[in-house]
């Protein structure tokens, strides 16, 4: 692998160069070779990072990826499949892939609204976005612009919030507004005189989301023991040179930069990655980062990051799942949306890895969600007029057919579940992820 890597570098730098330039190139090649050899050579007296996972399982977890209508999928890479398909079945669960979703950059209405005269909005789509014909919903403000408070005039500064109504059609309710019409244009009547209009442009179910969330396990370097032969590695299918942090870190940072993310959740973040690279990367794009090191004697942890122009931090604290069993500590970041004023309780977790302990992962997920819901309830109680949402992200080390997904999607893992049979010392009970004592 080293010879292939150096051969690639030689080809890359094979164009005409001066003697001094070739010396610099050769020096760089030797430097890379020395670093690779150093990483591949076991260090005397150094404990292998693999001991941090004393109960690693030899069981192979197979996850199937199917693309309806795509022949010979086995010969393609995952990148090929994702780039060419819109719908996939992963582990039997359907997923849709959205690329460049429809997004509007500006929506204006320069025409003066006059009773009996039609008005049309002007729409500009984001560069690269598909141009569609959105469904326009017209509303009229039902509250006055100026309120009387204690005999004094006060500007009505309350923000509007939009909620999609249940039902087969896409209809919306807007606070402080009364629905008037759905169509490309609107003709104000005499009852609209003196009122302001509010316009909702519905781009359909595949439009860009209000908040873009990214979650990644970026693989802590301390868990990679590359001293043995290729076939004995934890990831034997990946060449050693591609597993080294010097190769992986630039690709991880490139990937993170490719998203216009509002919230970012990372797991297995090395202290080196966090201190030297991530902090500088996030600072350059206006993202605030909160790093939480694991409680064990390791140098990796998790990161919750948020875009400063969109959110402000209200509260943050770190916890370990084990400590929550004794009701002490917390690991949470509460953010306020600068646009809507809503609060978001954010949690980031990394559940147990061993596939033989799926029932333990469900218990860990229960503890994490209950803690987050208790914090959500607290902020809902002290902010009765504010919407408080909850986001739990992380590496759950589970698949859609596992107990963690069943628990979080249905709210219960019944005592009849076969997953409890993994431990004969456990007496099965219905496991609920929500707080019974405050519902």
Look at the helices and sheets and give the structural class: alpha+beta
> How many domain units?
3
Individual helix count? 9
Quaternary status: single chain
For the sheet with most strands, the description reads: 4 strands, mixed
- Average pLDDT score: 78
| Beta strands, count | 22
Q: Low-confidence parts, pLDDT < 50 over ≥5 residues? A: 1-30, 45-56, 324-330, 435-439
Gap from first CA to last CA = 59 Å
Spatial order of strands in the largest sheet: 13-14-16-15
What characteristic shape results from the CA principal axes?
globular
Note the beta-strand portion: 25-35%
Secondary structure topology:
Layout: H1 2-12, H2 19-40, E1 65-66, H3 78-84, E2 87-90, E3 93-96, E4 104-108, E5 122-125, E6 135-141, E7 146-149, E8 152-155, E9 162-164, E10 172-174, E11 177-182, E12 197-202, E13 213-217, H4 240-243, H5 245-257, E14 263-270, H6 271-284, E15 287-293, E16 300-307, E17 311-317, H7 321-324, E18 332-337, E19 343-350, H8 358-382, E20 388-395, H9 403-410, E21 412-413, E22 431-432
Parallel strand pairs: 13-14, 19-20
Antiparallel strand pairs: 1-2, 2-3, 4-5, 6-11, 6-12, 7-8, 9-10, 14-16, 15-16, 17-18, 18-19, 21-22
Protein name: Endonuclease/exonuclease/phosphatase family protein
GO biological process, one term: nuclear-transcribed mRNA catabolic process, deadenylation-dependent decay
GO molecular function: 3'-5'-RNA exonuclease activity; endonuclease activity
What brief labels describe this structure?
single chain, 439 residues, alpha+beta, Deoxyribonuclease I, Chain A, 3 domains, four-stranded mixed beta sheet, globular, disordered N terminus
